[in-house]
Amino acid sequence: MHLSWLYRNVALEFGFEEFHLYLRPLQFECTDQKVRVQQRPFCITEILEDDSCVDRLIPSHLPLSIQELDENQIRFSFSSEEAVIHLMNRQSIKNLQVALACQVTQKNALTSAVKLARLCLWAESDSSSAEREDKDVTCNSGSGSHTGGLQEQYKSFHSKPSTGTSTKKRVMGAFVSIQLEKVGLCDEMLNSFVKKKQAVGGS
Predict the structure, then answer these.
(1) In Å, what is the CA distance from 176 to each residue of 3, 41, 202?
(2) Exposed/middle/buried for 120, CB within 10 Å: 0-12, 13-18, 19+?
(3) Which residues, other chains included, contact 3 with Cβ-Cβ below 8 Å and sequence gap of 6+?
(4) Is the distance from CB of 32 to CB of 194 less than 8 angstroms?
(5) If residue 37 lies in a helix (H) or strand (E), which one and from where to where?
(6) What digits encode the pLDDT tens for the residues 43-100?
(7) Rounded to whole angstroms, how far apart are CA atoms 47 and 49?
(8) CA 99 to CA 75: how far, in whole Å?
(9) Is 146 helix (H, G, I), strand (E, B) or coil?
C-alpha cells in the first residue's frame, strides 16, 4: 500500500492522474476475443495529445493484482481458522501461489517506476542547478562591460528557443503507466484463453 501511495504522488508530480495505477478487472468467461491487441504508447508523452487509450477507472479500494486478471474465480480468506483450513488443498494452494506471483510482479513494477521517476527528477534538478551556476559565473565574469554582457545574454536567449516545454516533456517521458504496461499483455492473455476455450468447445 505504501508503494501505491508513492506511485500516486509521483504520478501527480509528473502531471498524470492516479488511474495509471489501475487496470479494469476482467471476467474472462464473459469476455470476447480482442480483435486488436492494444499496444502501449512508444512514449508516455504521446497520450498528452490523445488519452483515449487510457481507462480512467479509480476503484474505491486498492485491489490485489490477481483481481485484475480473475475477479471472481480466485477467492481466499484468512479471517477464521475454518477459512484457513479450507485453503489447505492442492488447488487452493496453487491459487495462492498465482496470487502471490502477481502481487510480487506488481510490487516490482511499482518499485521500478517510482525509482526511475525519482532518479530522473533528481537528475533534472541537479542539471538545472548546474546550469544556473554556469550562468551566474558568466554574468559575473562579464560585469566589466555591462552593455556587452547584456548583448551576449540577449543573443544567447534568442539564439536558443525556450526549452521549458521540451524539458518538461523529457522529464514526463520517464513516467511509467502501470496500466498501459499491463493492458496489452492482458489482451494477449485474454485472446489465448478465448482460443483455448473455443478449441475445447469445438473438439
Answers:
(1) 14, 11, 41
(2) middle
(3) 107, 110, 111, 114
(4) yes
(5) none
(6) 787 787 778 888 999 998 888 888 887 766 677 788 888 888 888 889 888 888 988 9
(7) 5
(8) 10
(9) helix
Residues making up the chain, counted from first to last: 203
Write down the residue that cell numbers 473438439 correspond to: 203
Q: Residue 190: count other Cβ atoms within 10 Å of its Cβ.
A: 18
Query: What global pTM score does this model have?
Result: 0.72
Q: Rounded to an integer, what distance in angstroms lies between the CA atom of residue 87 and that of residue 141? A: 75
Contacts of 62 (CB under 8 A, 6+ apart): 1, 4
State the CB neighbour count (10 A cutoff) for residue 105: 12
Number of neighbouring beta carbons within 10 Å of residue 195: 11
Question: Would you state the cell numbers that stand for residue 150, as one nine-digit string?
Answer: 547584456
Task: Please answer whether residues 142 and 148 qualify as being in contact, where contact means their C-beta atoms are separated by less than 8 angstroms.
Answer: yes
Amino acid at 50: D
* HSE-up (13 A, CA, CB side) for residue 115: 6
DSSP assignment letter at 19: G
Per residue in 19-52, pLDDT (tens digit) is 999 998 877 777 676 666 666 666 787 787 778 8
- CA neighbor of 178 nearest in space, from 21, 12, 11: 21
Name which of 100, 92, 39, 102 is nearest 69 in CA terms: 102
